[in-house]
Amino acid sequence: MVTCFHSVFWFWSQGAPLCGHFSMSLGKRWVSITIFILFFVISFVYWIDKSALTGNYIFRTFANTISPKKSSAQVEFPFNCSNLNLTCPTNHPATIEKEESSPVACPAYMRWIHEDLRPWKSAGITRDMVERGRDYATFRLVIVKGKVYVEQIRGTFQTRDIFTIWGILQLLRLYPGKSALTGNYIFRTFANTISPKKSSAQVEFPFNCSNLNLTCPTNHPATIEKEESSPVACPAYMRWIHEDLRPWKSAGITRDMVERGRDYATFRLVIVKGKVYVEQIRGTFQTRDIFTIWGILQLLRLYPGKVPDLELMFVCGDETVIKKRDHQGLKATSVPPVFNYCEDDETLDIVFPDWTFWGWSEVDIKPWGTTLEALKEGNKKIKWKDRKPYAFWKGNPYVSEKRVELMKCNLSNKNDWNVRLYIQDWGKESTNGFKNSKLEDQCTHRYKIYIEGKTWSVSEKYILACNSMTLLLMPQYHDFFTRSLVPMQHYWPIKITNNTCRDLKLAVEWGNYHTDKAQEIGEAGSKFIQENLKMDFVYDYMFHLLSEYSKLLKFEPTIPLGALEVCSETMACREGNKFWRIKNFMVESMVKSPRDTLPCTMPPPL
Ligand SMILES: *[C@@H]1O[C@H](CO)[C@@H](O)[C@H](O)[C@H]1NC(C)=O
Ligand SMILES: *[C@@H]1O[C@H](CO)[C@@H](O)[C@H](O)[C@H]1NC(C)=O
Ligand SMILES: *[C@@H]1O[C@H](CO)[C@@H](O)[C@H](O)[C@H]1NC(C)=O
Ligand SMILES: *[C@@H]1O[C@H](CO)[C@@H](O)[C@H](O)[C@H]1NC(C)=O
Ligand SMILES: *[C@@H]1O[C@H](CO)[C@@H](O)[C@H](O)[C@H]1NC(C)=O
Ligand SMILES: *[C@@H]1O[C@H](CO)[C@@H](O)[C@H](O)[C@H]1NC(C)=O
Questions:
Q1: Disulfide engineering: 136 pairs with which of 24, 114, 337, 465, CB 3.0-4.6 Å?
Q2: Which residue segment(s) compose the domain that 311 sits in?
């Protein structure tokens, strides 16, 4: 059942390019909205009549519009979600013989249809007029020979557009073939809307959701010939890969060690001959594990045939899990290697890029590649010297004591510590369409504060990328890239003490007296992120870490019992995904072609 629901989401999330005749025009937005409503009303009248509002929304309403208007020998539409093709069927009834009895009179409000269309009555509607509606439109809908095409132009609240389109589709089922509307419906599908970046002779991955067997294709490019040009040097933070793997450097990693990571792990991931298998061990928050696995799959698309066989345990929580104090003396020789998003000086977790590099769908933080570009543009909006001369922070303070303490530094009747703090209410943002939580719109102050959450915070890269001088409240935890940030070069360090508010005030005062220097630190922080943390290097970090890890394995990775093979198709075509945004983010962050250059050269150990 769920599948039907998703095939409805499907086209919608992709934004199919099309030509059309029905949209906003000439700024008279209300007029067009009314047209939509009227369109809608026609099908609704029928539904309401059948008391359709009994839950299970789409399916219930569907059931009631399953046939064209009643007649004795009723024709029914085939509707079969197990034909999981995500394409539209072609065998629908084309036209229906109507009872030619005199029809009932419409309710009086339908008279207003004439009024609403009056502006175009004499001269008609040109393509140009329709196109100008684009500035306001959520979507363009086109009906050609009874088939429906949708181009998604921008997002809207919740599922308004989905259900509006659904309503129009039901109208076409209700009156198939009427006024040149025959009864076939096509949604633009996934495969057609991916437009990979063209390059001269680039190999492209086939990606075709209509092979929807939920199995992985076998025809992918296996290896790619690389240009054997001398590769670029990796950013300095990759040196830490050697450090993170040091506990296993001398004796290697046995199967038993990996197995002991199971007590903490969210999933086990196995790569055998370029295929990926996942055993889900326990749940985690939101979609962290999904996007982490997705990221690894994209790495395999980027470097086909190059990522070695391996078996690893991955923890997707906030906490670090492998404590140094539990692995001293004799136990120091059997530390379980566990991948995590962060670690601190007391732990031995192996750090790996967090899920936000492929997107944090629940809060609409887009994949990093997109966000980094948006931040670059966002930075141009307000020049450093024109930004507000205060230190800004916006986030959820209720995840750690430190953050709650920081709130005391906010502007109040008693004090002005040059600090402006705001609470991010994700619940409210979510119902608001995330209009006020865009990261690229938050580069408005000369100074930005970074403070950890429960452990590390994914916000650090977004904050550093703003061209504002980052006031970094000294963190306990680090993720994979933050270890090569240099104080006073990339950020201004602030110790967390009883005097934090005063220290923030002093830092801001310093910056406002030494604007050139403060601006320089701000820009150096952003440059670090723009240059060292572009997705190319994130993938290279993953590549080198996994390669070095794999060299330490003392056993042959095998496909575990109960593990499923995963690939981009099983994830992005999956029917069980709850939110269209997940699919959108996957399409957006998908690696379309293998890279034709070598990975960067790893720096030697310290
Ligand atoms: C739906 O399609 C599948 C596969 O084509 C078929 O086996 C099944 O009987 C169909 N179900 C219905 C209710 O028509
Ligand atoms: C799936 O779609 C293809 C063409 O896109 C068609 O040839 C095939 O018959 C379809 N399969 C099913 C089960 O509908
Ligand atoms: C996707 O697969 C179907 C069925 O295998 C095929 O008919 C179609 O041409 C493919 N589409 C693309 C874009 O490759
Ligand atoms: C779908 O899967 C079945 C076995 O699970 C296989 O026999 C069949 O060939 C597959 N079809 C396609 C189109 O991949
Ligand atoms: C901080 O102060 C500003 C200005 O008074 C206010 O708008 C904001 O809501 C305050 N933030 C918090 C977290 O109380
Ligand atoms: C900070 O304040 C707390 C309570 O006010 C006090 O117990 C603690 O000793 C102070 N710490 C320092 C370093 O001054």
A1: 24
A2: 236-354+536-589
